[in-house]
Specification:
Two copies of one chain form a homodimer. Chain A has a seven-stranded mixed sheet with strand order 3-2-1-4-5-7-6, with helices on both faces. Helix content of chain A is 37%, strand content 21%. At the A-B interface, helix 1 and helix 2 of A face helix 1 and helix 2 of B.
Chain lengths: 168, 168
């Protein structure tokens, strides 16, 4: 399998998980949060899947295709390790679907980032809200959901937030 | 259709055309020429498809994944508008399969580049040799081949070099 093959497989897994997540939140009020804009492809996909939601986007420095730049009022500019704690005021418990895929191309770097960022995402997710990610995220308030049929286990990750603490 | 959808479709068309081209040159001696390395995904695909061929790569500045950097002796470093005329000494009429996909994301820029580069690629292609490209290339010595069934017309391009001048 070439890098071209595995890249196509990864993008298809990403798309299938986002499509399923959008379907699963159809009856769940709340915003969408894209953690990293990049070239804007997944942002564009999310806003088309959920046209009636606000899609907030965290990004350090916008370098997306001009058609895929979010409106200023939905753009959270800066390092997300700094901005997510501030965004809590606006978004705490109000995000129905978050997507985190740093795609650093370096598994160790992605793991290190996710360890820092996951605890900052959690307070924003509403109970029952979904988190779609690559790499995996381990957190006591996240339960793993079944992946779309086309996606092999371990290729992409889909979670639902449950509130362990309040039910304990 | 989102930008994620169209990107996946484009990569699948690219792969299908490279796969078909590799099949079509199976009985045709000659090297492979990748015009632009980028992140190295299509280079990796080509070297896996045609493991017994030399895969030469033109690139201005190598920024590929470390696993996808060609050996020094197959790397033609510099602006291809400068290096292709020099490469003629080594490769004239010896390339069985060339791939050109600048993927600038800007159709006008890609068209301008292809107009400059196509006449420099032609002398390297052996008679019967294949050229896989996006965008389209118009040249009197190129005939258009039928695309793979999965690829819609106009999405990617596949040509065979014929020698109009010598047969005239």
């Amino acid at each position: 399998m070439s890098r071209l093959d595995s890249f196509i497989r990864r993008l298809k897994a990403q798309r299938a998980c986002l499509d399923l997540a959008a379907h699963l939140v159809r009856d769940l009020d709340g915003h969408v949060l894209e953690l990293g804009l990049g070239n804007g492809r997944t942002y564009d996909h999310l806003r088309q899947l959920l046209p009636d939601r606000k899609v907030y986007v965290c990004e350090r420095r916008v370098a997306a295709h001009p058609d895929c730049v979010p409106p200023t009022e939905l753009l959270i500019l800066g390092d997300m390790r700094d901005t997510l704690p501030i965004a809590r005021e606006l978004l705490a418990g109000r995000v129905a679907l978050a997507h985190f895929d740093p795609a650093t191309g370096d598994a160790a770097a992605s793991q290190a980032l996710v360890a820092e960022v996951a605890p900052l995402i959690m307070p924003l997710l509403r109970p029952g809200g979904l988190l779609v990610s690559e790499p995996a995220i381990i957190h006591e308030e996240l339960i793993t959901l079944t992946l779309p049929e086309s996606v092999a286990p371990g290729r992409y990750y889909l979670y639902r937030r449950v509130n362990c603490r309040s039910s304990a």
